[in-house]
Write a structure and sequence with these properties.
It is built from five helices and five strands. A five-stranded parallel sheet has the order 2-1-3-4-5, sandwiched between helices. By secondary structure, it is of the alpha/beta class. It is 36% helix and 19% strand. α4 (82-91) links the parallel β3 (69-73) and β4. The chain binds ligand CA2. Ligand CA2 is lined by residues 10-11, 13-14, 16-18, 22, 73, 75-76, 78, 99-101, 103, 110. Ligand CA2 binds next to loops.
Amino acid sequence: MKIIVINGPNLNMLGIREPEIYGSENYSALEGLIRETCDAEGIEVEIFQSNHEGAIVDAIQGAHGRVDGIVINPAAYTHTSIAILDALKAVGLPAVEVHISDPETREEFRRVSYAGLACIKTIVGLGIEGYRQAILFLKG
Ligand code: CA2
């Protein structure tokens, strides 16, 4: 099994500010958790992060025919991007949405998730551990 984990804007800044919302672990720790989980489960993984909406659309399109599933945290694009929603629908791969915080309990503008409409599961509020849960869910 092969998966891609896609992270959206500013997630590369994890651990630098707002630890009360996103925890104190940095992006390298998140990459480590993803790789350790995938190694333990015998899953091949690609990890991709971008601050650019079009690059994320390209990464989703590029997953078509190459991977078996997608774990995605579109970050702020969760709440704005119909392009990411359409890309997820276009590739038709099983996708799991992850959020480190629980957007439902935050500002009103975080309560809509476009990407989530194309995902088979959404995991929120577990910190970076949510990525492990998402990978295990995709594995089934
Ligand atoms: O909780 C999540 O995982 C989010 O996807 C994180 C996004 C936010 O826009 C979503 O509503 C929920 C923000 C990621 C930015 O992360 C930061 C990292 C360091 C300092 C400040 C923000």
